[in-house]
Amino acid sequence: MVSTLRPPKTIHDVWKSLPEGTLCQLINNNLVMNPMPLDIHQHVLNDINVELAFFSRKKKFGIVRIAPYDVHFSRQNIFQPDLIFIANEHVNLVKASG
Is the pTM of this model over 0.90? Predict the structure, then answer.
């Protein structure tokens, strides 16, 4: 039987084929792997997330998302910020999947 699997043609195709949750960004068409964050990083990130999420929900300014979360700027630049605030006027840009 002949396999119908094709190798990826672009770096974007490689990035798309990575398992969900992989700590990898596509920056200027290069794969950049991120190390697991330290405990103190996660502690501070959680504190910021709780405060920002509570404040933005209370004031109805927008939504907050926490990593891993892909932010697509182009096919060559897909970032995974630790935390992202999306103002109400940009919530319509959020898609279920990239």
Answer: no
